[in-house]
From TrEMBL:
The lineage of its organism: Eukaryota, Metazoa, Cnidaria, Anthozoa, Ceriantharia. Residues 1-22 form the signal peptide. This is Toxin candidate TRINITY_DN31621_c1_g1_i2. Residues 81-115, 149-184 form the ShKT domain. InterPro entries: ShKT_dom (IPR003582). Disulfide bonds join 81-115. It comes from Pachycerianthus maua.
Length: 192
């Protein structure tokens, strides 16, 4: 008896509002439209999640490379570098330090890599020093004979954070974006 009364109330309610709003076909279309909206929203959430994960990984890698750079530049304690291992599994690979360069590069602390200052570029001892790229020998004062120092790519400014030595894209940025990175007077500074 209660279900009959409930059904009657639903019918009465639907006819009072609008006969179109309670049509089962329209409800099905509404449900499928709603499903599409939900699916689009879920796709956007998934894409955003992937984007955030990639951003977090990029930030982690940048920080990791920055830590290595600081260590490499001489965060010294009694003549040895204060190296950190890049991976938690480094102690497991200690026996491979002498055999694999990749292990030594990523597990500097575990492999007890000695601390060495980088060698100066060969052009540093020439009469006029190095050009801005620290590779080409200048043929005269004021960077004469040096290649033009200008950005080769229009997107350089977007990757300025990759200009620092130790960053993964450093070599690329040095070659293709020297102006953005401020490398143009590098050789002149080194010679002074």
């Amino acid at each position: 008896m209660k279900s009959v009364v409930l059904l009657a109330l639903v019918v009465l309610f639907c006819s009072a509002i609008s006969p179109i709003s309670c049509n089962p076909v329209d409800l099905d279309e509404l449900d499928s439209s709603k499903d599409l909206d939900i699916m689009d929203f879920e796709r956007l959430l998934a894409a955003d999640k992937v984007k955030n994960e990639l951003k977090a990984k990029r930030e982690f890698l940048q920080q990791s490379f920055m830590d290595d750079l600081i260590d490499d530049l001489g965060n010294h304690k009694r003549g040895s570098c204060n190296f950190k291992d890049s991976h938690v599994n480094c102690p497991k690979y200690k026996g491979l330090c002498s055999m694999l360069k990749q292990i030594r590069d990523n597990c500097k602390k575990t492999c007890e890599v000695p601390c060495r200052a980088p060698a100066p570029p060969a052009c540093a001892s020439s009469k006029f020093g190095c050009c801005w790229d620290l590779e080409t020998e200048a043929t005269g004062k004021n960077q004469e004979g040096c290649p033009a120092c200008k950005d080769a790519r229009s997107f350089c400014m977007f990757f300025k954070s990759s200009c620092e030595e130790g960053q993964r894209s450093y070599k690329y940025m040095k070659t293709h974006c020297p102006e953005t990175c401020g490398y143009c007077d590098l050789g002149a500074k080194k010679k002074k």
